[in-house]
Design a protein that fits this description.
- The structure is a single chain.
- With about 850 residues, this protein is an alpha+beta fold.
- It has 15 helices and 14 strands.
- It has helices spanning about 1-150, 155-220, 240-245, 290-295, 305-310, 340-450, 455-535, 540-620, 630, 645-660, 665-730, 770-785, 800-820, 830-835, 855-865; strands at about 235, 280, 285, 300, 320, 325-330, 335, 735-740, 750-755, 760, 790-795, 820-825, 840-845, 850-855.
- The protein has a 5-stranded mixed β-sheet with strand order 2-4-5-6-7. Strands 8-9-10 form a 3-stranded antiparallel β-sheet.
- Helix 1 (about 1-150) crosses helix 6 and helix 11 (about 665-730) packs across helix 12 (about 770-785).
């Protein structure tokens, strides 16, 4: 059935395709007919356009002929008017020249008269002002002469000044003597203070050592009984020997109540004595008598002789060396090694005795040094007070002297100013008198010249008449020019129109040719469209024949499809029965799934309940479910109480909790306040972090800009330094380099220099003079990078020899000539002073009075050369 249905479908599609082809053929026929009609209308329009073009060309030819005729008629009239305009313009120019000449003459005469009038008025005003000034000058001269006469021969300020200067010198000498005494006593006081500090240091060190030894000895002697070692006195150097001989036995007490103790015994028989040449330990250890017998049986030998004497020892006897070797009568031998605790304790006790003696001596020295220090301190205070009083008197005298000097200087300055003012007034009076005489003579001459000038009234009347005639001639010339311009504009319009007509005739001719070619193309398109239309008119019959064949095939395909449809109905009936059985199975499966989901939901709910109970147990009991028996004090073999019993116990516990006291009702409010404070602090912290970020960003940008500026300045300074180094040394090379870091802001600076004949090396490896010149070159390199109008150099030539001083002076001359900088050089070197333009020095003719002296070397040189 599917195959039959597919075949029928294909036949239907073929029929629909034929229908579509038939429709397209109809549309194509309609389009061809429309195109044919359009071409026919276009051909008719082209014929009409060709006729319009012929009419337009005829009309333009007629207009052209008329324009040419108008041009020939207006030509002679335009030439006549143009000639008349030229003649009138020539006459107007001649008349204008005559008018200008007259006007200039009158203007010159008027200007000369006005100038003389103004000059005479100005001269009179100046003469009046000079006479007023002369009168004022005479008054000022009289007043100054009277003041100078009143102040002559007044020696009071000078004598008072000399007396105060002498008093100040006496106070200064007294202050100098007091200063010498103070310095001497101050030196002795510092020496005494140093001795006190040394003595205090020694006493403190010894006291600290004494305290440490006392603590060690006290800690070692703690207990119910103190060892017998506390009662012993051992000669210095024998502590190790005693410790090696007795060891821990020295810690035993002499009290018989102790578990172990020393007891006094008699002496052994004489057979137990050592050879008379050997010293026993009891000769160097003094103290408790309980050790006398034991110490008498211990002999002191050297380290080499102990092994030889060991076989001759009697029972109980021992040999020891001061280094700590031990040889016992029974053959036991122990070589010297680490000190025993008893030996160390004995040494500490001996050291403590030495410290006590040394402390007494050092304290006596400290007391003597302190007494000496107090004596010198008192003297220093007395002389300082005396010096302070002298300095106060000196300052008061200096202030008084300063005031007197100011008064004296003011008197001198006032007198000098009056003398200078009087001389200036006299000179000004002479100058003003001369100016007044010159002005009077000049005023007389100008007044005479003004009287000799002619009257210009008639000349001005003639100028007015000439101006009226000139305006009349200009108006007539303007009328003729207007008429000439009109004729010329009309001729230009005709010329432009003739040119336009020629272009339009040419355009219509070209358009007519294009229309003919277009008409031929339209005829060809009309023929092609007519032929296509004849071809497409036979297509409908062909399509109808194909449609009839397809209808027959479609009928046969439908018959096959009906038989197959019956079979399909039967198969579908069977399929429906199978579907019913399948639905039953699916319903049973869905029921099982629902049961499973319900059981899973119950299980999950039970798990959630258990989880909630576990959370409540952990929250309320602070333990897990497996520890609930321990939390409730229930034994493993004991049954868990019932729910009712547990609830009664819970109620009882709640009542007990309630009886504990009221709940803090402000806890939530306080928590909110704390939370608000926390939020504020958090916000402030975020603001601070943002501010820190902005600051870091600003620091980064500043560092970036600083690096750029530093590198730019470094490059400029390096360039100037290289040039100046070569100029100063007459060759060689040098440069600056950044070291220790890639960041210019944290990098160091090294100066690499190579004078002529030497290798490139650090500046610190150069000689003293070379270092000084290199430093000067670097200094001026920095100065040239950022120049200033004035540069002060203080003793820059001090470390230089004569040759290098000459180089430095050449450098200063070069920089001064090539820049606007002027140098002030503080120096005592004769070569540098000889190269300067002007010298300034300070001399003190009288004590306390300085005077500035200057010498212009350039002017002195010129005077010397002119004198030679």
């Amino acid at each position: 059935e599917a195959a039959a249905a597919a075949a029928a479908h294909r036949l239907i599609l073929a029929r629909e395709k034929l229908d579509a082809d038939e429709e397209r053929a109809k549309q194509a026929k309609k389009q061809l007919e429309d195109r044919k009609n359009q071409i026919s209308s276009d051909m008719a329009r082209e014929r009409n356009l060709e006729k319009d073009a012929e009419e337009a060309v005829t009309r333009l030819e007629a207009e052209k002929i008329q324009l040419l005729s108008d041009t020939e008629e207006s030509g002679p009239q335009a030439e006549e008017i143009q000639a008349e305009v030229g003649n009138r313009q020539h006459a107007l120019n001649s008349f204008q020249a005559e008018f200008d000449e007259k006007t200039e003459a009158v203007a010159a005469e008027s200007a000369e008269r006005n100038s003389l009038v103004k000059q005479i008025e100005t001269a009179r005003q100046q003469l009046d002002r000079i006479r007023v000034r002369l009168a004022d000058l005479e008054k000022d001269k009289a007043a100054l002469q009277a003041a100078l006469g009143a102040t002559e021969g007044d020696p009071q300020s000078r004598s008072s000044l000399q007396e105060n200067i002498a008093a100040l010198d006496e106070l200064t000498n007294a202050c100098d003597e007091a200063e010498l005494q103070r310095q001497t006593i101050d030196g002795r006081e510092r020496e005494a203070r140093d001795r006190v500090k040394l003595a205090e240091t020694d006493v403190t060190r010894l006291e600290a050592e004494e305290q440490a030894l006392l603590q060690l000895l006290e800690s070692a002697s703690d207990g119910e009984w103190h060892g017998i070692i506390e009662d012993l006195t051992v000669s210095k150097g024998y502590e190790i020997a005693l410790g090696a001989a007795l060891g821990d036995e020295l810690e035993a007490p002499a009290d018989d109540a102790a578990p172990s103790f020393w007891k006094c015994q008699g002496s052994y028989k004489s057979a137990q004595n050592f050879d008379s040449e050997l010293q026993t330990l009891d000769q160097h250890v003094k103290g408790h008598t309980a050790l006398a017998l034991r110490l008498s049986q211990i002999a002191i030998v050297d380290a080499e002789g102990g092994a030889k004497l060991q076989p001759s020892l009697k029972p109980g006897q021992r040999l020891v060396s001061v280094e700590g070797d031990l040889w016992r009568w029974d053959g036991f031998t122990r070589k010297a090694g680490a000190k025993t605790a008893a030996a160390a304790r004995l040494e500490q006790r001996n050291r403590l005795q030495e410290l006590k003696k040394a402390l007494i001596e050092k304290r006596e020295i400290l007391a003597a040094a302190a007494s000496s220090l107090k004596k010198f301190s008192d003297k220093l205070n007395d002389i300082s007070a005396k010096q302070k009083d002298l300095r106060i008197q000196q300052r008061e005298q200096e202030q008084k002297l300063t005031k007197l000097r100011a008064v004296h200087a003011e008197e001198i300055r006032t007198a000098a100013a009056k003398q200078s003012r009087l001389a200036s007034l006299q000179e000004s009076g002479r100058e003003l008198a001369g100016e007044a005489e010159a002005l009077e003579s000049d005023l007389t001459a100008k007044e005479a010249a003004l009287a000799e000038l002619p009257d210009i009234t008639n000349s001005r009347a003639e100028i007015e008449e000439l101006r009226a005639q000139l305006n009349e001639n200009r108006d007539e010339l303007a009328v003729l020019r207007s008429e000439s311009d009109r004729i010329q504009r009309e001729a230009a319009v005709r010329r432009d129109r003739l040119a336009t007509i020629d272009r339009e005739i040419s355009g219509w001719i070209d358009r007519n040719k294009n229309m003919a070619a277009h008409f031929v193309q339209l005829e060809m398109r009309f023929k092609d469209t007519h032929q296509e239309l004849q071809e497409i008119e036979g297509r409908p019959e062909e399509i109808a024949a194909k449609r009839n064949g397809l209808m027959d095939e479609i009928a046969r395909a439908e018959g096959r499809q009906a038989s197959l449809r019956d079979k399909l109905v039967e198969a579908e009936s069977i399929l429906s029965q199978c579907d019913a059985a399948l639905r039953k199975c699916q319903e049973a499966l869905a029921t099982c799934r629902e049961e499973r989901v319900r059981h899973q939901s119950d299980t999950e709910h039970a798990a959630e309940v258990l989880t909630g109970l576990a959370e409540q147990i952990r929250e309320k009991l602070a333990c897990g479910p497996e520890q609930i028996r321990a939390a409730g004090n229930i034994q493993d073999n004991e049954e868990i109480p019932s729910v009712d019993e547990s609830e009664r116990k819970l109620e009882r516990l709640k009542k007990e909790r309630d009886s504990m006291g009221p709940v803090n009702l402000r806890a939530e409010i306080e928590a909110d306040e704390v939370q608000e404070q926390l939020s504020t602090l958090t916000t402030e912290r975020e603001d601070l972090q943002a501010a820190i970020a902005r600051l870091r960003q600003g620091i980064s940008s500043l560092n970036k800009e600083g690096r750029g500026r530093l590198l730019a300045a470094f490059t400029k300074v390096d360039e100037h330094f290289q040039e100046l180094f070569k100029q100063v040394f007459g060759g060689g090379q040098a440069h600056l380099t950044l070291t220790e870091s890639d960041d210019p802001l944290s990098a160091g600076l090294e100066i690499m220099a190579s004078p002529p004949g030497k290798k490139l090396q650090l500046m610190s490896l150069l000689s003293g003079g070379e270092q000084a010149l290199t430093a000067v070159a670097l200094l001026f390199a920095v100065f040239l990078t950022n120049p200033a109008p004035i540069c002060v150099l203080d003793e820059v030539d001090a470390p230089l020899d004569d040759v290098n001083v000459e180089r430095l002076c050449h450098l200063l001359d070069s920089i001064a000539q090539n820049s606007d900088t002027r140098f002030l050089v503080v120096t005592h070197h004769p070569i540098t002073m000889a190269r300067m333009d002007r010298l300034f020095g300070v001399t003190m003719a009288e004590r306390g009075i300085s005077q500035l002296v200057s010498v212009d070397l350039e002017k002195a040189k010129l005077i010397t050369e002119s004198a030679a």
